[in-house]
TrEMBL record:
This is CBS domain-containing protein. InterPro entries: CBS_dom, CBS_dom_sf, CBSX3_CBS_dom, Diverse_CBS-Domain. The keyword Transcription does not apply. It comes from Lichenibacterium minor. Keywords: CBS domain. Pfam families: CBS. Residues 8-68, 76-131 form the CBS domain. It comes from the Bacteria.
Length: 143
């Protein structure tokens, strides 16, 4: 079973985070400037408090312009689904699809260790399938 540990070792463990007191406006600009879909809201101790994504920006915009000056903690998703590095890729893909979310913080002891997106998982799985396909072709070719 392929786990998140392998994916993180290949893609890296850097995660863009923000403090809960930052404004929605600041965090939306951060999403734009970094060209990312989500930012993890974490405490100074590295504990995941929430996640703020493009979907959350849309929800805030529906409330009106004044909400852009609210703290991000007021509008973040605070019930964050997390995973550990030993979580299986296929199970997480299924969980993310069922839950209709695109980012999972990877934690150990509650502390942030990485972040994976559904795109990361799909990309990895496609590469894995291609490797299996090539191995099968090589096997057939030698038979």
């Amino acid at each position: 079973m392929t786990t998140l540990s392998l994916i993180l070792s290949q893609k890296g463990r850097d995660v863009v985070t923000t403090a809960p007191h930052r404004t929605v406006r600041e965090v939306a600009k951060l999403l734009h400037d970094k060209a990312i879909g989500a930012v993890v809201v974490a405490g100074a101790d590295g504990i995941v408090l929430g996640i703020f994504s493009e979907r959350d920006v849309v929800k805030v915009l529906a409330l009106g312009g004044a909400a852009l000056d609210d703290s991000v903690s007021r509008h973040m998703t605070s019930r964050v689904v997390t995973a550990t590095e030993d979580a299986g890729v296929l199970q997480l893909m299924e969980r993310m699809t069922e839950g209709r979310f695109r980012h999972i913080p990877v934690v150990e002891g509650g502390r942030l260790k990485g972040l994976v997106s559904i795109g990361d998982l799909v990309k990895f799985r496609i590469a894995e399938i291609e490797t299996e396909r090539q191995a099968m072709l090589d096997y057939i070719g030698t038979a």
